[in-house]
Every structure is written in structure tokens, then in C-alpha cells.
Amino acid sequence: MNEFNRRRFLEGSAGLAASSALGSSVLWAPAVHAQSSLSFKPEKGAKLRVLRWSRFVQGDIDAYMANVKKFTEKTGVEVRVDNEGWEDVRPKAAVAANTGAGPDIILSTNDDANLYPEKLLDVTDLAEYLGKKYGGWYPACEAYLRPDGKKWIGLALGAAGSYMVYRQSQVKAAGFDAFPKDTNGFLAMFKALKEKGTPGGMALGNATGDGLWCNWLIWSHGGMLVDKNNKVVIDSPETIKALEYGRELYSTFIPGTLSWLDPNNNKAFLDGQVSVTNNGISIYYAAKNSNDPKVKEMAADIQHASFPVGPVGVPTESHLFFNQMIMKYTKYPNAAKEFLRFMMEQEQFDPWLTGAGGYIAQPLRAYEKTGIWTVDPKHTAYRDGVKNMRPAGYAGKLGYASAGAGADFIVVNMVAEAASGSKTPKEAAERAQKRAERYYKV
Q1: What dotted CATH number matches 30-160+319-388?
Q2: N or C: which end of the chain has fewer CB within 10 A?
Q3: What CATH architecture does domain 163-317+408-439 belong to?
Q4: Per-residue H/E/C for the chain
Q5: pLDDT(20) > 70
């Protein structure tokens, strides 16, 4: 985004492949001037343990584990992969960082790496190699994992896009031939859907991914948690207007969204309880691959759209960012670096993106060419998630404060309080201001 002051890391962008991949089996050429190869010799007897978030799409873990097997066959390094829910990875990663024991590699979310950057292995050499070879990292990747502008404290894996998922037939029945592109139309659509008995709903519990719509809500009206100088400014007229809008929007939701976590809206949508929600592509993926004929039939009616543009006048996308961190305490740093290099190379990364069915948007520009984004037009909306996203700590610099505030769900809780009426918009903003100031100490 032009309004976000991020340095752009575009080395090698001119070397993007000239032809696009038509499928995972078709290889395209990476940057022609890039360093041809880089490898790290694993330590003798190396074994690796990887902690990652559980899949929402079966093809993700299937393709990931196939690549793990290839890595072990090639290097002899045994790799154990443990899967945990998003809400469980974060505290387990923090414990590992603080105790100096646990997984060698952790795949976590948003700016978790900034909670304990001194506990993470410097992967600058690997990040620069991959950036040069594959057209450069998107700016959000740098913001999250290169906070000092010099050293990379982790590698980006991508992001699960938070886009609108809706039943086209029900939106049309409510009087809308196209999905609204502005917040006024968006609210009118939700009201009409409720009147038709086909309401929408979005998570207002402490949902790591699906609660990110609350960032969009605040940003779309010009509010922000902190300014570019990391001064807390959430208690503002812009935020109040956003919360008033959010309260009106919430009045159209299906009951129960205040306690929704990340799996809840998937279930509600596939059960036919809601006609519109925000989510990754996993709802569509589940419908297409369902053994239930009624659910499978729903896939043809599912469409995707970007969040509407609010009074601020520009898109304000917030997506669930995925990072890959090597813990500094690992006994096998070379093996860990080689594992991440191997997994990010085109021969492995392209089939993984394809296996995930569009659930993860790529962090490197060259992978825009991956065939999964065009094989089904319903996938394309998710392709540019990392490219267009604002980091969760917008508009400030990421670090301990932004990571802590994000982990504490300050923005989500503020929106929930105002939307439900447990606090007035002003009271909710004031409470969020005080909570955030505990992290952003002057």
C-alpha cells in the first residue's frame, strides 16, 4: 500500500518468469541473474522437530508432509512435525523461546517473531538468496520479519487470506446482483440478508485469523492502533465512527458470534446458518471435496470478494500472516536452514501451494505464476493477500509492542465490546487505548 511506509525489497524482480505455470507439474524459470544455488550442510546426526499450525485444508498438510519426506530422503535428516491449533502454537512458541528448549523450527502467525527476536536464528543469508531467486519478498514480509531493515529473524511462509465468502444466490435474492464495494452497500446487504432470513456473521471471539476483520473495520474508517511513531491513537473520532458502524453491522449477525473462534464460521456457513462471512478459501475447498451431496452442491453457489472500501477511500486488507522461525537454541542450525531452503524452492513450494488449493497466498513474487491461482477463477481473489496486506501493527513499526498487543486481541475485544453494547464506542476505545499503552510505553 502506498500509504504504508515500508521499504520495498525487489532485488531480482526483473527476473520473474516470462511464462506462467499451467499447473504444479509445469516448471517456470526463476530470476535469471540469481545465485544459482545455495545449500547448508546438515550437521552429522541432525534431527529436526517442527511445530506448525494445524491445517484447515487437508491438501496443505498432505503436500507439506510429502515435501518433508523428500527432504529426509535427500539429506538423511529425520524430521518430526507436530500440528497444533493457531491459539496453541503461540503460547508453546513463547515457552520454547523463554526456556530455550523445544522445536527447532516453529511455524506461527502474524508478528509472533517480534515477541522474542533475540531468541531466533539470523536467516538473512537464506532470505536474501530466496528473494533474489524468486523475484523479491512482498513489503509485508519485510515489515514482519526484517523489522530493523537489516537482519531477517525468520522467513515468510505466506498468508491465509481473510476475504468475503458468500452464497451468490442468497445475496442476489436479497437484492444485490454484485457484492458491494463500499461500506454503505455492505451494511445494506447485511440488513437485507437478515430480513430474508439468511443472515451473515463474523467472528468476535479471540479468533487468530477470522478476528482480523476488526482491523479492516477500524482502518477502513481511518482509525489505527498506533501512528507511524508508535504513539497509541486508537481512541480517536475515526475509531468511534468505525465502532458505531460495527455496532450496526453486528445487529444483523446470527447470534453467538461473540464467542466464535476460527472454526466456527466455517461450520456455520457449511451448515447453512449464514450466507456470508469472512474466511480463507477453506470453506470453498471443504464444500468442493465434501462427501455430503448437499454440501458439495453448495460449492457452485460460493463466491469470494474483497472487503469493501470504507470512508478512508483505499483498500485496507488484513490477513493472517504465517512465519517460519528457527530457534537459536537448535543444535542443528545448518540442518534447519537447509530444511527451510528446500521447502521454499520452486520444486517443493509450487506443489505445496497447489495442494493447499489457494488457502495460502505466496510471500515471493515469482509464485504469482503458480497455476493454482488461475485453474479455478474462484481461487484468484486469494492470490494477492500478502501483496496487498497491511501488517497487524499498522501504522507503526513492528516489535515487542505490536506483537504483544496483537496477541492480547485488543482491537478484536474493543470491537466486540462496542458491537455487543457492553460498552459504548467511546468507552471501548478508551479501554483499548489504556490496554495498548501498556505495550507501547513511551
Answers
A1: 3.40.190.10
A2: C
A3: 3-Layer(aba) Sandwich (3.40)
A4: CCCCCCCCCCCCHHHCCCCCCCCCCCCCCCCCCCCCCCCCCCCCCCEEEEEEECCCCHHHHHHHHHHHHHHHHHHCCEEEEEEECHHHHHHHHHHHHHHCCCCCEEEEECCHHHHCHHHECCCHHHHHHHHHHCCCECHHHHHHHCCCCCCCCCEEEEEECCEEEEEHHHHHHCCCCCCCCEHHHHHHHHHHHHHCCCCCCCCCCCCCCHHHHHHHHHHHCCCCCECCCCCECCCCHHHHHHHHHHHHHHCCCCCCHHHCCCCHHHHHHHCCCCCEEEECCHHHHHHHCCCCHHHHHHHHHEEEECCCECCCCCCCCCCEEEEEEEECCCCCHHHHHHHHHHHHCHHHHHHHHHHCCCCEECCEHHHHHCCHHHHCCCCHHHCCHHHHCCCCCCCCCCCHHHHHHHHCCHHHHHHHHHHHCCCCHHHHHHHHHHHHHHHCCC
A5: no
